[in-house]
Amino acid sequence: MGEKCFSKREPLYKVVLILLSVMIIFSGCGKNNPTNNISVHENTPIPTATIHVTDEPFSVCNLLTEEEKYQFFLESPLISVEENGGCRVSNQWETRSLVFVITQAQQADQAVRYFTAKLDENWNDPDINSLISTTLESGTALELNAFIQSTQSIYRALEYRWEPLLTIGDSAIFHYLPDAATAIIEVVDSDRYIRVGLYGFSINEAREKMIEVVKIIAAVAPNPLELPFAFVVEENSVSTTEGNLDEIPSVSSVLLSRKEIYFGDLCGDESTLLLVTLRNQETVNQVYFIYRLESETETNPNWTTVTMTKGDNQEWTVNLSAEKNFSAYQLVNAARVNYGIAVIYRINQVYRSPEFNDLIIYQCNLELKPKQ
Fold first, then answer.
1. CA 30, CA 244: separation in Å to the nearest integer?
2. What structural domains and CATH numbers belong to the chain?
3. How far apart are the C-alpha atoms of 322 and 271, rounded to whole Å?
4. Dihedral sign for Cα atoms in the order 143, 155, 207, 291
5. Global confidence as pTM
6. The dihedral sign for the CA sequence 120, 125, 131, 133
7. Can you count the helices (H) and strands (E) in the chain?
8. Is 33 exposed, middle or buried, given 0-12, 13-18 or 19+ CB atoms closer than 10 A?
9. DSSP structure string for 55-83
10. Among the listed residues 148, 169, 152, the one whose alpha carbon sits nearest the alpha carbon of residue 213
11. pLDDT for 349-362, tens place per residue?
């Protein structure tokens, strides 16, 4: 019986052996085919270069950090506003401002012409307007550096002084107007045009501060750079109206009735009268006295603003008392008052005087008090 059973299953056994052999052969062929080692997924993306995208759009004002802005002004609060493709940083009463912009390639050529066309703002001088128009028309085909050189006649007509700067960019010019505490630096750096304006600072401190700003924004600005602003000189944007037009007001003189005042109950002489004379004040709306106290024990970043009174002789005055006006400060001997004059004219225009520091506050001491 056993033999019969075996003989009946023998054909089936051979079939199983044949099938196993075929599977082994095909399995071996698969190992030699490299394509079988790739796992294919239909939704797998093709690797690309990594692109970092932020939700915050580029802002020229962010080229300087808040700490760098503070170190520039040494006061707070500061207000940063984008304007004319650049950034304006000002203190709370706009007695001091920093304006900067950086452009590249075609925008650089457009920007230098755009700002040249705006040089006559607040001057309203027909001769200046005509000179700007002529410079823009004749300089259409000039490259960046040559066009900047052609604008020097405009700055001279506006009574700016100027000097070349050799420490930044391929070429740089420092323009300054001492009477208006205004300075402008124009820099050509390869195909980039950098413009920095400073208002309300003394000329001596302005130069070095502006050079530092140029170096910072040139180092951190994207390269290449294209700003989302159209530097377009509109037709008839330069006025050529004839007639006697108003000029910008400025400070003619600042006088103190007393340059040393005292705090305490014994000495007297606790106040002084500040008298300001202005040029061209036909369009003046208001004049402010802006001040802060500096001493060995404190440096005050914030400025205090006092409205000045207009006198009968077109002079502006304010009476300052050591204990009344400076009670919020740490009154220590020989504290110095750092102050300036802000003139609001034509409703929303601001003239900023240079800063003065010729008023000193002493602690009352009859033995040490100098004779008047």
1. 97
2. 60-220 (3.40.1000), 250-363 (2.60.40.1940)
3. 6
4. negative
5. 0.60
6. positive
7. 8, 17
8. exposed
9. SSPP-GGGGS-HHHHHHHH--S-EEEEEE
10. 169
11. 778 887 888 898 88
